[in-house]
Write a structure and sequence with these properties.
- With 236 residues, the chain is mainly beta.
- The chain has one domain: Acetoacetate decarboxylase-like, CATH 2.40.400.10.
- 5% of the residues lie in helices and 53% in strands.
- The protein contains two helices and 14 strands.
- The chain has helices at 18-22, 144-150, and strands at 2-16, 30-31, 38-52, 56-57, 63-73, 79-88, 103-113, 116-123, 129-139, 154-159, 162-170, 176-186, 202-214, 218-219.
- Strands 1, 2, 3, 4, 5, 6, 7, 8, 9, 10, 11, 12, 13 and 14 form a 14-stranded mixed beta sheet that branches.
- β8 (116-123) and β9 form a beta hairpin.
- It is globular and about 45 Å long.
- It starts with a strand and ends in a 17-residue tail after the last strand.
């Protein structure tokens, strides 16, 4: 249904008490945990070469996106992403609200200053905004937690009380650990949960992911075999 490339992608994840993240999820989804914690992440990146049906470019096919996400699974064990918010600089993407995706339009920017990458974002109309600076390091020796935080092959949404899933496929790519220079977000990730995170953030960077392919959205209760393979995401 949609193809794209993800460029200059940073992941900053905080651990939270599972019961607090469970309260953010709709009925039918269970919080997914690793190291006895649920995880909430902010992920800014550049969407590039976006095409509908893999052939028709969007009116603006390259634009910035920042999403705030957590991780969930269905009762049968299939896991995926649950987006708490998605901000984009291209208003055309608001069409995805029809499947319940929480898109908002914002002024998002990415710039590079030597080895440091700076991200800024402010939602149109005020309110939520952030700035983030990271320093990518060397290619990572990928751990189980690294894969768990960055390898998901479906996303969940809800529309009119119906839980939906969208399959996602892309090729393995390199993953780097990154030093977090600074982050300031209002509301901060902790605004999604009543308490503070239960540990320090984990930061990753990927220069390029793609091509990325999103399949057709369907009811999540239909446990069909996906045409996409659930492979390990991050190559070395």
């Amino acid at each position: 249904m949609l193809t794209a490339r993800w460029l200059s992608q940073t992941f900053v994840h905080w651990p939270y008490p599972p019961e607090e993240v469970q309260a953010l999820l709709p009925r039918g989804l269970q919080v997914d945990v690793s190291r006895n914690a649920a995880w909430v992440g902010i992920t800014p990146f550049l969407m590039a070469s976006v095409k509908v049906l893999g052939a028709v470019p969007l009116p603006v096919s390259t634009f910035n996106e920042t999403n705030v996400r957590t991780y969930a699974r269905l009762p049968d064990g299939r896991n995926g992403l649950w987006f708490l918010s998605i901000d984009v600089s291209n208003p055309v993407m608001l069409a995805a609200r029809v499947i319940g995706a929480p898109y908002h339009v914002g002024n998002l920017k990415i710039r590079t200053d030597g080895p440091v990458i700076h991200y800024t974002g402010e939602r149109r109309g005020g309110g939520s905004r952030y700035r983030l600076a990271v320093r990518p390091g060397a290619p990572a020796e990928v751990t189980e937690l690294d894969v768990w935080l960055t390898s998901r092959w479906r996303s969940f949404t809800q529309r009119a009380g119906v839980l939906l899933e969208t399959p996602v496929e892309h090729e393995p790519t390199g993953l780097w650990h990154a030093g977090r220079s600074s982050i300031c977000r209002r509301p901060s990730p902790r605004s999604a949960c009543p308490s503070a995170p239960v540990g320090e953030p984990v930061v990753h960077f990927s220069s390029r992911v793609g091509p990325v392919r999103l399949g057709a959205t369907r009811p999540a209760r239909a446990a069909r075999t996906s045409v996409f393979s659930e492979q390990t995401l991050w190559g070395r």
